[in-house]
């Protein structure tokens, strides 16, 4: 298995690890006060070309904000393993809960191994996700650990509208589905398009 490595913009890693799901959410979260090293662990994103496009945009935004990035190997098999049998679940239910928890568990694992004191996620910047589900998952995975999860609601920042302008101004890629192949299928169903 590939090792994680830092892409350092600053001299040293920070004490907070920020799980990042996409570049637009990183902009929103940063303007709302989120700081730390960027941890782009998203094995749910499908296909690989989409994953690489989103990762490239995250690198661009992290460089703009002068943030360190932890390079994490792409590992879609883990997502498919953990969500087996839940392919037909509607968005926002059990499959999504498992996916969010999986990503936060990996963030915590890396944080513990590398001396971070806390972690959080930009997932709460999305208006389509349950903040309660995300923060409960973070609190639960970090229970009994020295690395603390910091609950947040980045989308409630007074700078939310400014972040939308900055995203547009920088020409940041905005995806039209959550990330997994099942969310693509759900989008297609809602639009009445043929499922891939």
From TrEMBL:
Disulfide bonds join 178-180. GO terms for molecular function: 4 iron, 4 sulfur cluster binding; epoxyqueuosine reductase activity; metal ion binding. InterPro entries: QueH. Pathway: tRNA modification; tRNA-queuosine biosynthesis. It catalyses: epoxyqueuosine(34) in tRNA + AH2 = queuosine(34) in tRNA + A + H2O. [4Fe-4S] cluster binds at residues 21-22, 96, 99. The keyword Amino-acid biosynthesis does not apply. PANTHER family: EPOXYQUEUOSINE REDUCTASE QUEH (PTHR36701). Belongs to the QueH family. Catalyzes the conversion of epoxyqueuosine (oQ) to queuosine (Q), which is a hypermodified base found in the wobble positions of tRNA(Asp), tRNA(Asn), tRNA(His) and tRNA(Tyr). This is Epoxyqueuosine reductase QueH. It comes from Fervidobacterium gondwanense DSM 13020. The gene is queH.
